[in-house]
Design a protein that fits this description.
By secondary structure, the chain is α/β, with parallel strands linked by helices. It has 2 domains: 156 residues, Isopropylmalate Dehydrogenase; 156 residues, Isopropylmalate Dehydrogenase. It contains 12 helices and 11 strands. Strands 3-2-1-4-11-10-5-6-9-7-8 form an 11-stranded mixed sheet, with helices on both faces. Helix 9 packs antiparallel against helix 10. 47% of the residues are buried.
Length: 339
Amino acid sequence: MIHPEREVTVAIDAMGGDFGPEPIIEGCIQAMDERKFRPILVGDRDAILSYMPQYYVEQVEIVEASDVIDMHEQATNALKRKDSSIYKAVELVREGKADAVVSAGHSGATMTLATLRIGRLPHISKPALATLMPNVHETKTLVLDVGAVVDCKPRNLYEFGVMGEVYAKEVMGLEAPRVGLLSNGEEDSKGNELTKEAFPLMKEIPGFVGNVEGRDVFNGTVDVVVTDGFTGNILLKASEGVADAIFTLMKEQIRKSLPAKIGALLMKKKVFARLKKQVDYAEYGGAPLLGIDGCAIVSHGSSNAKAIKNAIFQAIRFSRSDVNKEIEALLLAHNGKSA
């Protein structure tokens, strides 16, 4: 359930991202124009103010941070970099000064700090990074994990399923989400050692429908797909590559044919615009790290202002929901059955 009356404070790593603070500040401004929340921008004060119109300066709080963790650096170094923008942003959530953190910076550092500094929910052994992927019904399929835990145990997959089902209910608004376990076939006997051992545990999840295949992520037969972070990350990157390749091939074929050019012009505003919106990462902005005792949204380093705005919206919606409380309640209800 979403509680729109809850006041939400979002800590935003203003220095993370491939393009510096400009798109992050612009995304924050766009979000402020559309939603009511308290933003805390973390980073170099002078740099932030240089991109912040005077009208908005009094509406934001700025927390000074003198350090930035670069994308090529080791994620484990993040714990020692206490003056970094992402460390200070995460600390605001840990200290209860913010409800959520949004960062387009080093994803590994963000996940490490969120897990170790904010902490995990009491009955979650490992968090999961969840992302929304398009399907043919013009809705979204929630896939987790897509990179937080590359080496999983059966218990982890069970917990991912619980978290995915609850997120689909509480944040996506699905009344009875269908949860599938990603495998190399739909039959119960299919899979590797990990999925075969996880399968009986997954049966404890109310919405579990069994094994699903890679194509089911996109055909809309399930709402939540559970997998380990290694497989999930490959699935995510491969699907992004396929989407880019299809658009490139379409453009090349259209340029070669006059009738195709005319048809493309006629379809541009409706068909192509809707298709582009379906596969555009900026439409949802970031991936929530589920299983931590708070909210962390991990965005692409190449995020534009629109992506940052929508990542902030995700953080607001998550913080106004009962996701973490309901995850704990479902795990407690089945405590011991999946041990």
